[in-house]
Amino acid sequence: MDRVLLISGMDAPEKRIIQHRYVIEAAKQNNVNEIVYTSIVGAEKGNAFSPIVQTNRQTEQDIINFGLEYVIGRNGIYIEPDLEYIDTYVKDGEIRNCAAEGICTYTSRTELGFAYTKMLLEDKHNRNIYNLVGHGITQHELTDYINQVYQTELIYNSVSIEAYKADRIGELGEFLGTIIAGIYEGIKSGANKVISDYEKAAGRPHKSTLELIEHFYSTNYTN
């Protein structure tokens, strides 16, 4: 069976839908049997990240409407951006966002790559939608794990959604800052507290958050 991996675009939400449809149309015209799509976990309404989630849900439906076979992976939040931000965290002495006590089921690019390889190569995944997420933790737990691996003494500081959004927009600009704030707003409201289908997709359990951090550290900070 011929399969195509459609990776969700990075453009504005309204542009993504059209871009994705071009890929779907091209796949069908070239007799591709199945599309494996990298979607995302999250709430379709209620936070500033919701328009991105809506875009992904529309593409999921477009793939089905075109009559193609499909496998859809709804990715969790990547752990890497937090770890790539470690120098700033250390400088500030804290991890600061608006997630409060919300649960986040972090994953990693490496874990997702393993799962999507299985989804592309194995027929048994046809017509499944998987939550590709890891184990749920709070920001306090994330901070503790980072301290353990990096031997830092960070604290977690929860701020209001409004304050965090203003901070992110000030540093990253209106579009990206709003999206990042929306991700943590979603974590706070429970949008990322979902049941994991990772083992069904990958054939093995998802690695723990501590293991994800240890792997990133060993890959980037040790010889």
What's the oligomerization state? single chain
Distance between the termini: 41 Å
User: Which structural class is indicated by helix and strand composition?
Assistant: alpha/beta
Predict the CATH topology: Rossmann fold
| Radius of gyration, in angstroms, nearest whole number | 18 Å
What's the helical proportion of residues?
A: 40-55%
Give the helix tally: 10
Tell me how many strands there are.
8
Structural domains: how many = 1
CATH top level class name? Alpha Beta
Q: What order do the helices and strands follow?
A: EHEHEHHEEHEEHEHHHH
CATH architectural grouping:
3-Layer(aba) Sandwich
What number is the mean pLDDT? 95
Most strands sheet: 4 strands, parallel
Low-confidence stretches: none
Strand order of the largest sheet: 1-2-3-6
Please tag this protein with its features.
two-stranded parallel ribbon; alpha/beta; 16% strand; 223 residues; Rossmann fold; 4-stranded parallel beta sheet; 10 helices
